[in-house]
Amino acid sequence: MYLQEKFKLLPFTAVKPGGWLKAQMRNDIDGFVGHLDVLVPELFNDPIYGAGRLHQHSRPKDLGNRKQGDAKGDDQYKWWNSETQSNWWDGYIRHVFLLDDAEGIERVKQYVECILATQDEDGYLGIYSEDIRYKFNAENGELWAKATLFRGLLAFYEATKDEKVWNALLMAVDNVMQNYPIHASSPFTSGDRFNGGVAHGLTITDVLDKLYQWTGESRYVAYALFLYEDFSVSFQSECDAQLKNILNPDYTLKSHGVHTFEHVRPLAVVAFQKPELREALDIYLKRIENATTPTGGPIGDEWIAGRMPDATHTGYEYCSIHELLDSYALLLQKTGSAYWGDAVENIFYNAAQGSRNPNLFGIAYLKTDNSYEMMGNRNGEEGPGKKQTRYKYSPAHQDVAVCCNPNAGRISPYFIQYSWMTENENTLVAMFLAPNILETELKGTKITIETLTNYPFENDFIFSIRMDKHTRLTIKIRRPGWATGVVASEPYAENDGFLVFERRFDQHDRITLSYQAEVSIKTALNGEHYFSYGALIFARPIDAKEHFGRAYTEKFKDVYYEPLEKEVYLFTTDHGVTYVNGVLELRLINARTQEKEPLRLIPLGKTILRQAAFRDGLQ
Fold first, then answer.
1. Which residues, other chains included, contact 125 with Cβ-Cβ below 8 Å and sequence gap of 6+?
2. 354 touches 605 (CB < 8 A)
3. What are phi and psi of 610, to 5 degrees?
């Protein structure tokens, strides 16, 4: 039984960024998103999808990383370049089309031509030679290398409608389904040792789900179900999402965080095609929620290891930030629950923005909500026998793995694509609030809606509507869970967390809207308190001294931050917090002096070092 999904995705490029978000993405193209391939050329010059395909005697590759903190086993290093290359190209493809970057688009076209030239006559697109492809009994990246590649090719097809790319994708997916026949093979059987690449491969369901949505052919989601069931019964080192573990009430999340959070999507795809799995999805989502900080940070630095979130002692990985955002966006599309819209915005506007360097080109591989220093390790802690270097800002992070920076290039385009969806033939739905421009067509009417806003820094919106003829239309706009009131330019209905505007719209029309907010205190599972206003979490910035590390070029460098002071503040109910011109003013207890002091908190995304969570002090 295939269940009707609540909302329908719009093609990539139907929604483009505006305002500050467009400016940030342009800055990223001028920064690491546009230059990662030249910062680590040896990783991108590897012709792993073509002349350099892996074979039986291939050796692990020198990726320039120290390997400290990695899982044991060298086989993973054979396929890593496919992930780095394809995830980066996915983000780059999406950036240049969304920004109408003509030079970048031409570069992307050349890349796609080169990739299609590697496709074998039988449709194979991948990183393995004929002697070993589809014949594994150990760690491999067969499905993972395809998933990362195909997602970018899908974006290119949606932007260009190039039938050659579409046909190549269909052939490539058919090649997988023929060589791993449904219910007659075991793609996830790979021995009993570390097999993180195999587990990553489950995300090829991203591609299968998209093909189902665009073609309506149920064989794609039937195959996704087959993959999930095979994943669940085979040995997996990254096993949090296996059905037996989900249904075990005593099980706690322990795997590599990125796997745990990306595996929400395969489970969501099969759960909404096989209703009896929905209970498992509900259980898994509750566990995920309990492994997430109030900023949306999904813990795992890099393994979850049975821990609960702690603002100082559990970090989160940028890869995990992207993967959980993508997972929650998929849930929003499938369920229609406005709750997931709040969850996505929380991740994007807080954890994700708060892991970027607001002043230089780079992101944090690992970050904590309370970030008292960024000198390589977690807030000054030292692991036994290891030198941690992931807690820094870098345009590449080659010393550990070039995985987070490619994903940092994907997160904004994915957020933008999901920002608008359709519900039926005459309903447009604003899912995520952000400055953007929607261009689409409903029942033959061309429609452009520009969302003019400085959100999330302000909560006022103008939806400027242009159409080629007068049209009766329904526009639904998500009401955030934090909104205490609504001021709109016209009457509206409310339905399941959405404001509903239904009327005949003129060719040039508008809706103006403001959401009212109050300062809110969010209390984490461990009792730590966070201050929020609207969509934003606020934090006390800590002055720091910059230390430059590796220079990839004069412009792109690793950067470390040493605190200039080490005061820590405690929560008091007598804080007197007020929101004033974009900051929070309040009084909290200095842990050293035990005296109350006036403080100003700023949005998390504008900080480098900070205290965002406050433990109880004397009342």
1. 49, 115, 118, 119, 146, 149, 150, 168, 172, 175
2. yes
3. -170, 165
pLDDT band at 63 (very low <50, low <70, confident <90, very high): low
In three-state secondary structure terms, 516 is: strand
0.90 surpassed by pTM: yes
Q: Check residue 285 and give left, alpha or beta (phi > 0: left; psi -120 to 50: alpha).
A: alpha
Strand partners, 467: 447
Q: Rounded to a whole number, what is the distance in angstroms from the first to the last CA of the chain?
A: 57
Classified by CATH at the fold level, domain 420-516 comes out as Immunoglobulin-like (2.60.40)
pLDDT band of 2, cuts 50, 70, 90: very low
Domain extents for the chain?
Answer: 31-218, 420-516, 521-611
148, 167 contact by CB (below 8 A): no
Phi, psi values for residue 592, rounded to 5°: -80, -45
CB 15 within 8 A of CB 436: yes
Distance CA 611, CA 539 (A): 5
**Percent of the chain scored above 70 by pLDDT?**
96
Q: Are 133 and 81 in contact (CB under 8 A)?
A: no
Radius of gyration of the chain, Cα coordinates, nearest whole angstrom: 24
How open is the CA angle 63-65-67, to the nearest 5 degrees?
A: 115
CA gap 419, 384 in Å, rounded: 44
- Residue type (1 letter), 190: S
